[in-house]
Design goal:
The protein has about 625 residues and is an alpha+beta fold. The chain folds into five domains: about 170 residues, Rossmann fold; about 80 residues, Translation factors (Elongation Factor Tu (Ef-tu), domain 3); about 90 residues, Translation factors (Elongation Factor Tu (Ef-tu), domain 3, Beta Barrel), CATH 2.40.30; about 60 residues, Arc Repressor Mutant, subunit A (Orthogonal Bundle); about 110 residues, Winged helix-like DNA-binding domain superfamily/Winged helix DNA-binding domain (Arc Repressor Mutant, subunit A, Orthogonal Bundle), CATH 1.10.10. It has 19 helices and 34 strands. The structure holds guanosine-5'-triphosphate and magnesium ion.
């Protein structure tokens, strides 16, 4: 059965609550004070089942709002999730201030459908009803209610109610079903305890669905709650779907920990935000809104104070629309497409509203013009273009699918479907990056290696880990892919662990090459009686730093071998030593320090480190004071 949420709107005492009662039999004024004063203070609820002439069954959930101007905040908490409005105008009073304000609010919230109800028709004659009808038609011209049914009724006598029900069925059946596949969001409008149940919250489920035992995240504070029980329109249910008035019995939070304005949502998906970029419209009746002004902000059931930052202008004129950032005093859950209302800080009157375009604006923007263009794409209807813009905006960092979901409110499955039609986006498991950023990255990698090699001409390349570190913003998988692609295209090569430009070897200047030869010869000719490295380097024509690099190079290429902190040998000398030891083994399976000195002709200063080196190389093995030759 389709569920549709119907909201009332209209001036105080025009008969909204009486109408809801006449239609549903339910008195939505539940507070003692409301009954005593005969006015509605807070939102009230009722429900009604209808069948269309075509036989479609409809379930209508009513949200009855207060008309008193002092309670507009409560009205706003109820009107945020409605599909259809009953604009209630008393036939004996016609259009009054809150008729206008409530109607403005409906327009700003982008309510698409409604019915005008001329109540108290029993108190005036037929001609007066017709005069009011003309006034109302005039008032609604050009709005979403232009051409909507205008139905005179009397809640007292019941006249016109059947006619109204027929219209309700017809208009409600035209309301498109809400997306129950979307990520779940339930803005809380009431919190109370029910004997034997504990904590109960109610709200209009604006998106997704809730099942018994589901875990939900409470925004903005992140608390987790579990759904113990569900009631939909006052009856126990296994699940609730988008568009239904829903009561949830929750485990995991007391009534003190929850309040109107919080939102229950699919866990681990969204982030609360205190800054949103919006497309903001100012009512024609409002005063110009200055950049930096403070206002009251209302979205769904929440309200807070916000500062307005208008993009590219010092102020917003009456009746005009612009992109603006709202900086909220309290963090809240908002996703693109959410509607909101702004009221003047003081005196508190409705001045405008709009739609959220981006819930995670960047801290800094490089160009305001191009950022406004970006917001323009996000605010548009082309979902692929908007996904593309979001991915592009993250540039070489890329963006995870989860991040896009949190920013857009789209479920992963919907995103996957969109991605299938967005060929300019590359995907690395859960990371998305646009093709041109990928190309930029590929080039940047080649140029990083190039720069490194130019700076370090004596080194054969840069280690993979070192280049990776200079691409710390790039997700590892993306880095691997661009490296791989550069290797395939032969723009880079990997030798061992070193990345280099193909054909770019170690570049040595003449004096460096000469010094390299000098060092090598000094050690090669010394055999095992090596000079100290310091002495060799001191005799070179080049400076110490460059000399040290050459030594590093010789050690890396294993031309020289360092066997202790200050002993370096040429590899040919060590090879010869191994042969000598192997030959000696024919005479004796053991060798001690004395024998070693005799055999090689070196002093003790060299003998000990050399034997320890041979132990490490498993040529010999220490046994007591002597060594076994292996
Ligand atoms: N004669 C007559 N009286 C009506 C009709 N509808 C409402 N009333 C009376 O008008 C008064 C106000 O009605 P409510 O339904 O409380 O008005 P409301 O619009 O809900 O008022 P707020 O919620 O405070 O904004 C009550 O005394 C009703 O009995 C009607 O159709 N005919
Ligand atoms: Mg009322």
């Amino acid at each position: 059965m389709k569920s549709v949420i119907v909201g009332t709107a209209g001036h105080i005492d025009h008969g909204k609550t009486a109408l809801v009662k006449a239609l549903t039999g339910i008195d939505a004024d539940r507070l003692e004070e409301e009954k005593r004063r005969g006015i509605t203070i807070d939102i009230g609820f009722a429900h009604l089942d209808l069948v269309t002439p075509e036989g479609e069954k409809l379930h209508l959930g009513f949200v009855d709002v207060p008309g008193h101007e002092r309670f507009i905040r409560n009205m706003l908490a109820g009107i945020g999730g409605i599909d259809l409005v009953l604009l209630v105008i008393a036939a004996d009073e016609s259009i009054k201030p809150q008729t206008r304000e409530h109607f403005d609010i409906c327009r700003l919230l982008n309510v698409r459908r409604g019915i005008v109800v001329l109540t108290k028709s029993d108190t005036v004659d037929a001609e007066t009803v017709e005069v009011v009808r003309l006034e109302v038609e005039d008032f609604l011209r050009g709005s979403f209610l232009d051409g909507a049914p205008i139905v005179p009724v009397s809640s007292l006598t019941g006249a016109g109610l059947d006619d109204l029900k027929r219209w309700l069925a017809r208009v409600a059946s035209e309301v498109p079903a809400r997306n129950s596949q979307a990520l779940t969001r339930l803005p809380i409008d009431r919190v109370f305890t029910m004997k034997g149940f504990g904590t109960v919250v109610t709200g209009t489920l604006v998106a997704g669905s809730v099942r018994k035992e589901d875990e939900l995240e409470v925004f903005p504070d992140g608390r987790r709650v579990r759904v113990r029980g569900i009631q939909v329109h006052d009856a126990a249910a296994e699940q609730s779907i988008a568009g239904q008035r829903t009561a949830l019995n929750l485990a995991g939070a007391t009534t003190e920990e929850l309040s109107r304005g919080m939102t229950l949502a699919t866990p681990d998906t969204f982030r609360a935000t205190s800054r949103v970029d919006t497309l903001l419209a100012l009512l024609p009746s409002a005063k110009p809104l200055k950049d930096g002004a403070r206002v009251h902000f209302h979205a769904y059931t929440m309200e807070t104070v916000a500062q307005v930052r208008i993009y590219g202008s010092k102020q917003l004129g009456p009746g005009s629309e612009r992109f603006a950032q709202l900086r909220l005093a309290d963090r809240t859950l908002l996703v693109p497409g959410d509607r909101f209302i702004l009221r003047q800080f003081s005196p508190v009157v409705t001045i405008g509203g709009g739609v959220v375009v981006e819930n995670t604006p960047p801290r800094r923007i490089s160009s305001q013009d191009s950022y406004v263009d970006f917001l323009g794409v996000l605010a548009g209807t082309d979902r692929v273009a908007s996904l593309m813009a979001r991915v592009q905006a993250q540039g070489q960092r890329g963006v995870t699918i989860a991040e896009v979901a949190a920013r857009s409110g789209l479920r992963t499955a919907e995103l996957q479907a969109l991605l299938a039609t967005a060929p300019m986006i590359a995907r690395f498991d859960d990371v998305l990056i646009d093709h041109s950023s990928l190309e930029t990255l590929r080039k940047a990698l080649v140029s990083a290696v190039d720069t490194f090699q130019k700076r370090n001409p004596l080194v054969a390349g840069v280690s993979k880990e070192e280049v990776r570190a200079s691409f710390s913003d790039t997700p590892p998988r993306v880095f691997d892919r661009i490296l791989h692609e550069n290797l395939q295209q032969k723009k880079l090569q990997v030798v061992g662990e070193l990345v280099s430009l193909p054909g770019r070897g170690v570049v040595m200047k003449e004096d460096e090459a000469e010094s390299k030869k000098t060092i090598e010869q000094a050690f090669a000719s010394a055999g095992l009686k090596v000079p100290t490295l310091q002495d060799v380097l001191a005799g070179l024509k080049i400076d110490k730093a460059r000399a040290q690099k050459i030594v590093t190079l010789l050690l890396r290429d294993k031309v020289l071998v360092k066997i202790s902190e200050d002993l370096v040998f040429h590899q040919t000398a060590l090879q010869a030593l191994r042969k000598q030891i192997a030959a000696y083994k024919v005479q004796s399976a053991k060798i001690d320090v004395g024998k070693f000195k005799d055999l090689t002709g070196v002093s003790r200063k060299y003998a000990i480190p050399l034997l320890e080196y041979l132990d490490r190389e498993r040529v010999t093995k220490r046994v007591g004071d002597a060594r076994e030759i292996l």
